[in-house]
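Recall that a protein's primary structure is simply its ordered list of amino acids. Everything else, from secondary elements to tertiary packing, is in principle encoded there. The following example makes that idea concrete.
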Amino acid sequence: MPREGTPSGPRLELDDDRPYEVGESVGAVVEGMTGPWDDVVVTSPALIHPLHLHPREKGASRSEDPLGPGMRVSIRSGISPGSYPVAASLNGRTVATARLKVVPQGPARIGRFVVETKDGKKARPGETVLVVLSDAHAAPDEDAVIVSSRALGGSHRIRDDGTDDPACKCDDGATVYAGRITVPRGTGSGTYEVTAFSHHGRKTTVTGLAVRGDEKGPAPWEPWVFATGAGTAVVAAGAWLAMSRRRRGAGAGPG
């Protein structure tokens, strides 16, 4: 039944009555359709492609559940915030319209950024480590983030596969990006910075990775890593600035 004060005839409604962030996905419902219909096409300059709506059952006046597979479409990345028109058309004729309010992406909320080694201590050259980043407010259109470190041989992508990685044990609803990366052979002993660039490079998060190379001598300095109340990785005693000194004549370290 139409809500009081709404016009009769077809109506187009977004799946949630709220502003949407840039890059977020949105669904829509058309209802009040009469006569035979099969494919209502929803378009907007804010959407990356048209959305096709179909009757939820034969002869129905309402379209399928907008949470179903293929029933959502993403808002364009980089679009300016504002209110955008949305139109529903049947056989090229507009039957209903709506407005889509777009707001900027919210800030990241990093809860955990760690590099897991086999023994929970120092990594060795040739060892594969697990890199995990959790973000309670991940960019909605970002399925991977960049992680970079000399200890990891440069830059790599770690991905969100839609599930919490078992090593993370996250159950707070955060998006978890994870990937396994091998420490290159020949990497010298020391503590290296590992940097994650998320939210399309707008958010930078840093942690450390201690590597025990082939050099003989005292073990390199290790940072004490802990989490602040905001969940950002921090290293005590100036860990990000301090680096272990390389032994004279030893291989390249994290200088």
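The chain has a mean pLDDT of 81. The first strand starts at residue 11 and ends at 14.
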